[in-house]
Specification:
Elements (H helix, E strand, L loop, with lengths): L2 H15 L1 E6 L4 H6 L2 E3 L1 H10 L4 E5 L2 H10 L4 E3 L15 H10 L5 E4 L4 H4 L4 E3 L4 H7 L4 E5 L2 H11 L2 E4 L14 H10 L4 E4 L5 H4 L4 E2 L2 H10 L4 E5 L4 H8 L4 E4 L16 H10 L8 H18 L2
Parallel strand pairs: 1-2, 1-3, 3-4, 5-6, 5-7, 7-8, 9-10, 9-11, 11-12
Helix pairs in contact: 1-13, 3-4, 4-14, 7-8, 11-12
Enzyme class: transferase
InterPro entries: NadA, NadA_sf
Cofactor: [4Fe-4S] cluster
């Protein structure tokens, strides 16, 4: 089937099934163009809560679809590929987190939204890369348990001056966690005058070399409001698509190229798999009710803390 025919079929199935497609900022351009909403994981989780659609197709990795199901338990949520995992989420399991809770009784547990659903259910607060610093600053006390991304935890520690107990001690993103300073130096040489934007999942020795640190949505806002015309984008390479769509008229260059800059799990989500999801009703995301309720409570507790 040609791409044009595939897109026509997807649009027809969306209308027939009263479905929407949520597309993460890291998706390929074709997926972003067919999506009803694009954004970061938090943005899309909120969009899912606001929709009247009966079916939600989440064009993103598995933990994102799980989050959408937890927040919309009465809706059907489809994940185009259940094998689309996340190295950050898979770095932490419930047994390890339980051990940390017992070792540090009474210390609040703050989990990055990039966590698997059973782990999320053990959180007191669920944060994103855009809300982590603000939330940890507002949480009472001077110590929190934070996981599963080590680099984000270290960045939050710097920005809040709180003691961060990192769990696990080695969780990292397959893209951001492997950045080295030479990437920044080479990119600045290649694109002199361009502003460098980096995701806070990167190591601190990278963050110290850039012009802006922020989530994918924050990168969009920074690029939109900046007087600069050129930007080096230090995150998953699919972000270039989101920036081109949402900030037209400016130039964006990837900090690194494929395969280094491409998340293999994000790349699993294709137009063909989205079509299959809508046509064959696969793959349905199923979560135990008590797990979904615990995640909703942590999510809402965090929104209340942030004043959202």
């Amino acid at each position: 089937m040609s791409k044009e025919a595939l897109i026509k079929e997807i649009k027809g199935l969306k209308q027939e099934r009263n479905a929407i497609i949520l597309g993460h900022n890291y998706m390929d351009m074709d997926v972003q163009l067919i999506a009803d909403f694009t954004g970061d994981s938090y943005d899309l989780a909120v969009k899912a809560m606001e929709t009247k659609a009966e079916v939600i197709v989440f064009a993103g990795v598995r933990f994102m679809a799980e989050q959408a199901k937890a927040l919309n338990y009465d809706r059907e949520v489809l994940s185009p590929d259940l094998n689309a995992g996340c190295t950050i989420a898979d770095a932490l399991d419930t047994e390890t987190l339980r051990e940390y809770r017992e070792r540090y009784p009474g210390v609040p547990v703050v989990l990055y939204i990039n966590s698997n659903i059973d782990v999320k259910a053990m959180a007191d607060y669920i944060v994103t890369s855009s809300t982590a610093v603000k939330a940890v600053r507002k949480i009472p006390g001077d110590t929190v348990i934070f996981g599963p991304d080590y680099n984000l935890a270290t960045y939050v520690e710097r920005m809040t001056s709180k003691k961060i107990i990192k769990v696990p001690p080695n969780g990292k993103c397959i893209v951001h966690g492997n950045y080295v300073p030479d990437y920044i130096r080479e990119a600045r040489t290649k694109y002199p005058g361009a502003k460098v934007m980096i995701h806070p999942e990167a190591p601190l020795n990278i963050i110290d070399l850039v012009d802006f640190v922020g989530s994918t949505n924050q990168m969009i806002e920074f690029a939109r409001n900046s007087e600069a015309r050129e930007f080096i984008v230090g995150t998953e390479i699919g972000m270039i698509n989101a920036l081109k769509l949402k900030v037209p008229g400016k130039e964006f260059y990837p900090l690194t190229t494929e395969p280094i800059a491409r998340c293999p799990f994000m790349a699993m989500i294709t137009l063909e798999k989205i079509y299959r999801s809508l046509r064959d009703d696969v793959y349905r995301v199923e979560i135990p009710g008590n797990i979904a309720e615990a995640v909703r409570e942590a999510f809402e507790r965090t929104r209340k803390l942030l004043g959202d």
